[in-house]
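U., I forgot to send this yesterday:
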Amino acid sequence: MHLLQRGSAVHSRTAKQQRRPSAAAAPLVVRAVAEPTTRPAEAAKRNGAANGNGKPKPSHFLNVIPKTAWEKGIPPVMGAHLMASGAIAPISTSKGAGLGVEAHQFQYPGEGNAQVVVFATPKNASKGLSKLIAASAAAAIAAKGSFTLVLSGGSVLNTLSALAEVKGVDWSKWWVAFVDERNVDHASPDSNYKGAVEALLGRVPIPKEQVLAIREGLPVQQAATEYEGRLLGLPAGVLPRDDEGLPVFDLIVLGIGPDGHVASLFPNRPELAATGPWVLPVSASPKPPPERITFSLPVINAAKEVMVVALGESKSEIVQRVLEVQALPGALPAQLVRPKAGRARWVLDALAAQELNIGEWENLKDFPRNK
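Result:
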């Protein structure tokens, strides 16, 4: 669908993120081969010589082996026989196609749909994002009496300043957490908490005890454990759990890095595959500062709603890659953001969306591409 707002064009489309194909069971044996021809004249007559140059058309047939050579199942051990080359064949203990193999450490969580909303300018995107967040807050407060907002760091925080101008917000019901945080003092310019205070939290009356900042001065492992402990201590009326025991935040707002990372989940890193703790320590981040804590991917995907915000021309290449090019799982962490029971929404401006081919997304044969 296309949405038009007065003063700025807003496009909203749904991007289908395809599930990674699973390995299918192999058929018995089916081969298409050219039939040998020893008498060209007879072959041409039989095939009709319909190609117009006097040469016979190639004929094909299917050689189907309808019955397995192993009537009692695949032998547990094969090989060790003498090959024509004179070498001994290696021993194989295969149990069959796709059986007994170790799964890739990164897996797509399943098929997902993401709504993409494009605003004309960064200013319009900031106002639009604020209205979307305020609407999510009103719905959550009406449903359960509280609203949990989870923030990322970086440039995303700058887009939240317009939220302080929204009228009619019941700030007393808001709870704010951080999807990732640098293990630094709150006064450090690297602190996401400091950035959030300057952009929003210092301008609105959210109770201080309802803003969950990282505990200062702890080793990174202890900082992650302590932060998870505080989340576990929140009442179910504020932070419900799903059927797997994961926390269900009302809204998580993410940014995206040029390498496709979200939160502090970087490409092909072990933290991206973690499924146990809610909060993970990151001790050697590829992006400084090196020590961080981050929500795990299952916690992000358990949220009721996830928004990915990308503004400006510098984001256009990674936005196009994530939304239109299917990468190997783990190569682009943002492609693994697929809320299992919630909604994903991308908030972009025109410059960030300039390389997208939104009008062609309905052609499922071309999108998502693999290169």
